[in-house]
Amino acid sequence: MKLYQKAEQxxxxxxxxxxxxxxxxxxxxxxxxxxxxxVFDLAFVFLYPFIxxxxxxxxxxxxxxxxxxxxxxxxxxxxxxxxxxxxxxYLKYFKNxxxxxxTATLGHVFSCSFAGYAFARYQFRFKxxxxxIVVLAMLVPAQVLIFPLxxxxxxxxxxxxxxxLAVPTFFGFGLSGGFFIFLFRQFFSGxxxxxxxxxxxxxxxxxxxxxxxxxxxAKSSVLVAVVLSVVWHWNDYFEPGVYVTNIDKMLLPSRLPxxxxxxxxxxxxxxxxxxxDSIIFNEAMLMAATFLVILPVLIVYSILQKKFMEGVERSxxxxx
Length: 320
Description:
mainly alpha; 15 helices
C-alpha cells in the first residue's frame, strides 16, 4: 500500500512539474515574442526613411504619378543616380565637405581629448565652475550664439571661408565641442592613477605622459569622437549656410536645397542642361541625390559600427 501511495504521489509530482515547465516555457516564449516585436517596430521606425529614399529613388516618371506604386518600382530606373550625381556636381562638393569634416574632426580629437584629460586627472582653481560651463555649452543651441559669432568672424574677414567651421574646433569649441570634452573626461576618469605615477618615475612629463601613454589608451573614445564628429559636421547645414555663401565653396548637403528649389521652380542650370540632354528632374532624382549625400556617412558607420559600439561602452556613456 505504501509503495502504491508513493508511486501515485510521484506521478502527481511529475505531472505538476511538467505542467509548471510547460507554463514557464510558454511564458518565456511570449516574453521573447513581445521583445522581438518591439525590436522590429523600433527598427522599422528608424529604417523607414532609408527604405523610402531608396524605393523612391528608383522610380520612373510613370511610377511617381501612379498611386498604386508605393514600395517596389515597376522597373528600377538607375539613371536617376547618374542624373543626381551630375546635378550635385558630386566630386567637387564632396571634396569641400571632406576638407571641412576632416579638419574639424582633427581639431575636436586634439583639443577635446586634451581638455577632458585635464578635467579628469588634474586639480586646479575653478575646475568645477569651468566644467559646469562645458556642460552648459552642451545645452545651448548654436542658433543662440550665431549672431555674435557671425559679427566676430565677419570683423576678422573669415566669412566665405572654412575658418569659422574649423578653427574653433582646435580650441574645444565648434559643433558639439562640449560633448566631446565630456566624453573624454568620462573615459580618463576611469583609469588608474598608477599609470601616470609609473610614467612620472620613468621621467615623463605631463605632456609626454598624455601623448605617449594616455592618448593611445583612449583609442575607443577617439573612435567614438571621430565617428560622431564626421557625422555631425557632414550633416550640418545651419552653420555652413550662415558662414559660407559662395556657391563654389558650399558643402555637399547644401546642394540639396538648391536642387529642391530647382524642382519647385521647374528651371535648370544652363550648364547642367547640356550635360544631361534635357532630362527632366523629378522627385525620384531628388531622392537619389539625397541618398548620394548620406552615402559616405553610411559607409563610414557600417565599417566602424562594431568598434564604435565598443567605444561607447568603454567611454562610460552607457551609464549616463
